[in-house]
């Protein structure tokens, strides 16, 4: 430890755990100018503690923590690693000393399983040493012995090996008969599963002739697991017993099945001959030997051939010259003819069964591989399949021979390896690839093949997407409604059916912006549904669906109007401006501002008829003049607010009465100047702006006064409509109206009302916008 002070003359004192310390055998205190040092030469546990240096009333402190992980004694560790070998039933001891800070946890393991002091196992740990005692050991106790030490500073382990010796297990069958002739029986077997931990010294063999009770000891035959018995009689059967001998002892016996000497055991059939190569004057064949040799070695083979269409087989090799190899070059062939071949194996007993015939092969020079297929194209596709067709490649003699089959291969765009779709060549010039991933990108090629090999592949010019043929989005419903009225509080549900390929993107907008999270959109194959749960008036608007894919897009709009039965209009007032008429006015319904289709209906009842009847409907302002009001009758009026959902409760006026004349009287009026009531036309209520959905009606109205009564003309884009039968025009007491039953795009434009009399002219105009 070292510290530095500001003055070289400063004298300091070192302390450990509060007690002053001086230099000793293991500790040196020194001073070098401003540096003061304390050096511990060999750290032990006693040196752990808090150290302090004081000089001129100032101090600095530090602490030493001595780590002492467990460690083994080096010499004992080397001895411990040496494997321990004991015999079955004996005991084995493993002991190892260690150092390290206590407490130290000691664990012993056998083949990874922790051991404890119980049964035939005893563990003793004290004073830095631990011993493992294993008693009455069995062969199964062999394995890895491991000791593990652990304290707060670390962990260490050591490994040894325990080998418990025991008698070997019996040899293993089944026997493999190498030869069973009239003078020799040779056979093999498998070594024992467990040699008892010792090297095999000998196999002890006994033999019994079947039918006798005695066993003849053949004796130890060495450590090799095979035996050749030459002391046999032709036709007799023999049985053998086998034991394994090691330094520990002899195993239990294994008894073989009966083996007959000199039986005629013919070999089984070899494999069907394969054509290695074919020429006009030679066909080269190969085959595999039979699995069943008949108990003896194979001496050779006989080969036969047969022309296609013939029933006669002829031997290829001379009868006295068997074929030694597993192949043969047949030269006795005629160019252009087709042959098949079969082969039989020969052992000491004779020739066995013939193999199955080979495939037919022409005696002709090898063919040239075919060329590329022609006109490769896609005929159909889905999300998981792809149908292809092509034409045969050209047959150019000596260059490209005729194709006999085809292979179809695909390669995903992200991979470099081609995958073959058909393991065997197909003969048709069409194929359907299955199991493709939807919307995945693939490269496709077709390879023609024949006896001369595979030709060059023909690829499609472009990659293929696993999807049906591209289809521009279009809506499949014959008639889709473009307007929907929904009562407030109910759910609005609208479904659109369409077709498109590939699968399109579906977007819903409300008044040109994406729909809110409240609206639920459900998309499935070929259909999309919009659902507005618990619709409110604020959900009213133009909803547009956009269906688009890589081919194009299609849109459709529907107006959804969320409404309810309107609230009634306010108080009704009556006023007589012109004799014989009553002007009815009322306060607007609270729903008028948020429902542009709201209008009013006026009904009347008098004291004579006593029944209510409608005198005005589809009134879009808050005033109406009733005519033909008779003096002496009592009148009462009701006003209703109406919309697409129905009508409101009535707002009723007070009773109105014009007294009738009861007696004739004369009034003498003073002479006065005549009053001129004439005036030029003037609009009391001008035309309003209108926006109407396509296919729905539109009602325009205005009110005009003038004396004499003005002539009224309706115009659209400055063209008169008065004689146009497509428009319903009316003029009742100065209230002029125009009705369009089914609004179309042709009705868009500027509408004008011109009122004219002898005193002047007045005009009022508006614009009609048609929503699709």
UniProtKB/TrEMBL annotation:
CDD domains with a match to the protein in the record:
FN3
The record's InterPro entries line, in alphabetical order, gives: FN3_dom (IPR003961), FN3_sf (IPR036116), Ig-like_dom (IPR007110), Ig-like_dom_sf (IPR036179), Ig-like_fold (IPR013783), Ig_I-set (IPR013098), Ig_sub (IPR003599), Ig_sub2 (IPR003598)
Q: Where is the Ig-like domain?
A: 1-65, 473-563, 681-769
- Fibronectin type-III domain residues: 171-266, 269-366, 369-470, 568-663
Keyword Repeat part of the UniProt annotation: yes
The UniProt entry, under PROSITE patterns, shows: FN3 (PS50853), IG_LIKE (PS50835)
Q: Which UniProt keywords apply?
A: Immunoglobulin domain, Repeat
> What are the coiled-coil residue ranges?
none
The yes or no answer to whether the keyword Mitochondrion is present is no
Task: State the name under which the record lists this protein.
Answer: Titin
